[in-house]
Amino acid sequence: MNSSAIRVLVLILALSLCVSPAAWADEEGGPRNPNTATDIGLGVASFLVSVPYGTAKVVTAVLGGIVGGFTYLFSGFNKKAADQVWYTTIPGDYVITPDQLRGKRDIRFTGVPPETVR
Asked: How many domains does the chain have?
């Protein structure tokens, strides 16, 4: 990575850290006053967090798809066994949103198998 790309990345990270305390001060309930700095900070922070998080989630989903395929094959074509792997690794959030950073939505890295699969 060249030094100018590293400088840009550090600048973006520094700006997001400077603006994000305003986001955490956002009040729950009551009339919402639009705050552009808060929205920008949360948008930048969610992007910066989503890059490594999304990469880890995609890798987990791909590996879960492969392992689920082998589970299906080696369990004698038992789809319920494969579904346990697939429903746990593939569903979930692939991107972190500003609402998740505010704590209004939960972050789900893994999925939950449906009751009919168990």
From this structure: 1
**CB distance 80 to 86 below 8 Å:** no
One-letter amino acid for residue 74 of the chain: F
pTM check: above 0.90: no
Q: 65 near 86, Cβ under 8 Å?
A: yes
Domain that holds residue 62: 3-24+36-102
Domain-located, residue 117: no
The count of other CB atoms within 10 Å of the CB of residue 23 is 22
Spans in the chain with pLDDT lower than 70:
1, 3-5, 7-34, 113-118
Whole-number Cα distances in Å, 118 to 63, 98, 102, 112: 21, 34, 34, 10
What are the C-alpha distances in Å from 63 to residues 2, 23, 112?
Answer: 31, 35, 17
CA 15 – CA 4 distance, rounded (Å): 16
